[in-house]
Design brief:
The chain is of the alpha/beta class. Strands 7-6-5-4-3-2-1-8 form an 8-stranded parallel β-sheet. It has 12 helices and 8 strands. Helix 1 packs parallel to helix 2.
Amino acid sequence: MRRALIAGNWKMNLDRAGAISLAKGVAEQAREVDHADLAVIPPSVYVDAVASVLQGSNVAWGVQNVYWKPNGAFTGEISVAMAKDLGCRYVVIGHSERRHILGESDEDVNNKVHAVIDGGLVPIICVGETLEEREKERTLVVVERQTLAALAGVSADKARGVVLAYEPVWAIGTGKNATPAQAEEVHVALRKVLAGRYNREIAEAIRIQYGGSVKPDNARELLSQPNIDGALVGGASLKVDQFLGIVAGLSR
């Protein structure tokens, strides 16, 4: 059985004091959680402060993005080594907002996946379709293309430890949500894509999260689906009770 991962993506929210307070609250209330892996992904400028709070807890942390080059004249970017230096375990890659607002390509995502894996961290690779693509019944075509592009050149051994996150773009921050059946359908399809790219064993080992307006009131039904291995949580991760409410939705 794959161990679920619940990760809170704080995006571009909070100030330093708020990030520290939220991290403290999550760490305190998550002390008894032993049935899932937990992580928070703060803005990069607050990772060090958050890390100092979470040190020794059962909550890991990560960054929302990295650049694939190890160093150099890349103003505004951070490297995998920098993230690792701050104790990060996870790196979110290819989030829909970076793809659709900031113009990241499939090639950019693939370069980052290689850099993160080679640097010893865990990539959370985001894939998902827009509303237009779903209405044109291209969902499975889009997520297959994004998945295969992200994993191009990644060996089976290295792929075993990656995390995929299916996040329908139309359900992020909109209050809309894929039904459990819709989400499970895509997760099953992604599992088949992974089996075709590698083999069934690797496909079964890779965790596939769901991300798209996950909240305590829909978490249990979503997370009970056999191929949904946790959640990449946006707005609901900014409040301790909501984030832990989602965690509580997991079957023990």
